[in-house]
Protein 1
Amino acid sequence: ALSVKCDVQKDDLSILNFTVKGVEDPELIIKSYGYPAETHKITTEDGYILVLHRIPRGIKGVKKKTPILIMHGLGSSSGDFINMGPDNSLGYILADNGYDVWIGNARGNSYSNSHLYINPNLNPEKFYNFSWHEIGTIDIPAKIDYILKVTNQSKLYYIGHSQGGTIFFVMTSVKPQYNDKIRLASLMAPAGFVSNVPDPVIKLMSGYIDEIEYILEFFQIYHIPYLDVIRSFLQNICKYDNYYALCKEIFNIFGGGYNDEAQFNKSIFTKLFATTPSDASRKQFVHYFQEVKSGKFQRFDYGPGKNLRTYGALNPLKYNLTAVTAPVALYYARNDRYIGVKDVEKIASKLSHVVNNYLVPHEKFNHGGFLFASDIRPLVYNELMRVMKFY
């Protein structure tokens, strides 16, 4: 139950009359801070058109010409790595430290919502028929190959947040040849095993995931609906001081936020909701709920009949984490409602080359803190870059 007091003033009635806007262009956001920016598009083998936003160099420091691919979490986008500005957003910090920064967008999100043959508005059932398995086995390898070709490099750094960790594990276990293309994978709040998720609502819902999926299918909901309306409404309402408590609770509930007021600046809302939340398929969410329920890290569970036709077995195939041989650094938090400490420790025990196992030294640090905390740089990013220098 959530109880938030909001004093509606007469002047606040504009919250009911706002203009619906699309997401802001990350290239324009980057350039507004004085950094060079590029937008690249690639097409996957199954026809999805994916967008990469690039910061080829910083505005200070020495250019090392070493490429980095950054991948976002569920319901997120490249915007979350640039919208907090040069002092706090990872994209600028890495660029100023000399790296060639490429920030990816998974298929189906607000920037990668095109296909060669399928219109997502006319045929959403077919367009959004993917989970994070396809993102890991098709999208990320395509991005890596493209970046290495453009930069004339043989290896790159990989940084992932939440689902960004999931798809790395999927890629390197299903396509182990890509381990050789990774200098170092730095994974923040990585989602692999998720059965120990601290959030009680997720725990509860996972027990009824089959029924929930049936309802969503009945109402033909294949992705997150009304995103432009949601973003525009949040941008509009969160500019009022009277609604600060409500906006903070929305952020904490749906963004895995943090509760430490010293880390939380209400000025982030207008920046945050310009790009967030981003779109994702229903199947991505369902796949995670299946993992919570089963306690396994495995492919999508279609039920015995379709599993047999798809995998040649009654149960989904498990991801072979022993095949992940690239160096991996893990960063996680004790107060993260979405990624439990026990689950990260379980992932670490399965990997052969963990080079850093870093629990953030702040008791209240949470899932969203890896992107938006005001002290993220000293708490996480400095350590992340320190380890990168060894590779």
Protein 2
Amino acid sequence: MTATVPSLALALLCLLRAGAEVPVQPGFDAEKFAGTWHVAAAVSNCSVFLKMKDAMKSSIVTISFTPEGDLAMKLMWPLLDKCQTFEQLFQRSEPLGHYTGTSAQEKRDLRVMETDYGRYAIMHELHQSGREPSTALQLLTREQDVSPQLLQKFKELIPTVKGLTEDMLAVLPQSGECQEGAGWHTR
């Protein structure tokens, strides 16, 4: 009996590690994924996000890929009286649909968990910096409107991600602000 207890504990630990692995869209196609997306909903345990989530509005993400397969992301976010533009480059990793970003102060792990390419995508990001690591999920849509079915699917995913709870969710209201080419300014 005493020999089975450590074996059982080891098996449970392996299952927990296997369950902690974030899935990536099977057969990910970068060409189909590239283009403009709207951030329709987000959930994160980041303290900055949690303080700002009730005042946030939908933003626009433009995704492109370098010839090497790296993911370039341009985010236009309405903040106060102006639009902020943030640009990030993530290096391609394995499997396809998995990207990493590293700077002197932080590491980011980005995964396209699920997408149908034409209507929605669900992305997972793990961010590690000098502070506590944070986890986020984003529901991206090609149109500003998000269907109740997609939103429900997104909500059902939240408890499956370690560290996230539904009270951390922000369903972002539509915004006519920060449309590319509509007079937005960068920081």
Protein 3
Amino acid sequence: MPNKENKTEATQPSKDNLRWSEEMDEALLNALAKEALKSNRHDGSWTTEAYANVVKTLSIAIGPHITKNHIKNRMKTLKDHFAEAYDLFHHLSGFAWNPVTRKFEAEEEVWQDFIK
């Protein structure tokens, strides 16, 4: 008979493999925006203090298992996703990035033409 404890451990994601939800992404982006307002980003790089503050903020909001590497990996993934979407939409007429909703937006007619 299999050991239940081993089965549970095998199905649990490791601390290195963190699955990010939209809420977690939002918490990350808000924490980074707060650090940017504090001028904790220089020459396109986040300061050590910024990372420490973001880890602390996310540890409270998400859980104590968040690390600097989790944050760096997620930021890279988000940049890649944004770059793909930007490349797809930025040359098309009628689409615009909404910084509040963090989505590309267009009138219904524009979407319908794009889908065709």
Protein 4
Amino acid sequence: MSQGGAAAPEAAKPQDQGWAWMVLLAAVLLQGLTLGFPSCIGVFFTDLQHEFQASNSETSWFPSIMVAVLHGGGPLCSILVKRFGCRFAVMLGGLLSGVGMVSSSFCKSISQLYLTAGLITGLGSCFSFQAGVTVLGYYFVRWRTLANAMASTGVSLGFTLWPLLSQYLLDEMGWRNTFLIFGGILLNCCVCGAIMRPVQLASGSPPQSPKTAEEPGRRAEGALLSNGASSPHPELQQQTRRTACLQVLQKYLAFDIFCQNKGYQIYTIGVTWMMMGFALPHVYLVPYAIQNGVEERRAALLISVIGFINIFIRPLTGLLSGHRVFTGRRIYLFSLAVLLCGLSNFICVISAEFNVLIIYCVILSIAMSGVGALTFQVLMDVVEMDRFSSALGLFTILESITLLIGPPLTGLLVDITSDFHYVFYNSSFFLISAALFIGLSFCALEKKTKLKESSKVPLDKPSIYQYNETPTEPQPESQSPPAVMYITSI
């Protein structure tokens, strides 16, 4: 089904101009409302603990579920976009996000908050964000790279504004009324979705023909029906069902690439391990500062500092990494950024004074900008572009698992020891070990490849067994944008 869903296709509109820039503005707002939103959860951490008499571990499950679902719902969003179109997915996501936060304001226990704010709001944010990124591929061809870079500034704006707004509303009217207001604010995702009208290519044909859009599972289902009509054998039907499941898994979760491509295998394992510690400062920095005597408004300002610096550093890092000097070396830049993230956590261990925490936030933000700008660029370098979408599906699913369990496990450690320093020790351990694993493994893989080349032992499939970075060029105007792509951002 084309992106327009069941509705009749509209007249062809020129891309890269006119309404496309309104769609880009809506995408900026969407990323601020969705990816930027979890940054404010730490502001409510202490109040939620007191309200529900919950431990650090129990309270941290709430933001963990939200972030994990936001990242891990990519394949589900992909299917939704393919079947109903980007506009529908964005508006459905906005509705779910709003309903989730409004319901959260009436919760009587922390476990109810897991369902409403964690699962429902997280899933809604996933639909809105990833469908909003996908629609940019239809509206922009020549300026697609610029459009995606500009849209990503919405995340940094969200990181800057959400914590400040949260602290102000929390002081004025409490967390329940604040969550109620947040539900209304997140409903603006529906307005952004309404702006994203279905678009056709300039040639007048839909971005994706119905034949091309047909899912492997649906084709296998047709085969199953035809086989079932002609043969009563249940084993044949069961075999066809297995084939359908394997086709769907291969399309959305690239296990075959994971088994064959050593570079993708190393990178996916390293990033998955890294995520165990990457989100910890966002969850625990504000309660850590408050516990050490920092005034609540100033504690909320710490997260805003991280977001504000990201606005400028992330695009700059993206442009710098695209220079030809770094061709073939982006993986090492990524490892360096992760290593800096891990080392910066020791600043919090040294002192919890506000001025020291500001220095920590500045250094952490610079390192995070590098991680955020390079994560998916490196993935594009490691995996062939015709399989990027399915490789990204497995990548986001695995990282969402560690994003889910990392903060609660660390919270349990804090509950046992009554020492918030273990948050930053844990974060440093996972980040530093992941950086060393990725950097040293790729270095060893590169040396192994050079040794094979020098000994003139040909590889049957060099792109499968070695890290082979190729510069990504903009697609020509005649080429259609990817039909479905689910993208997350860190």
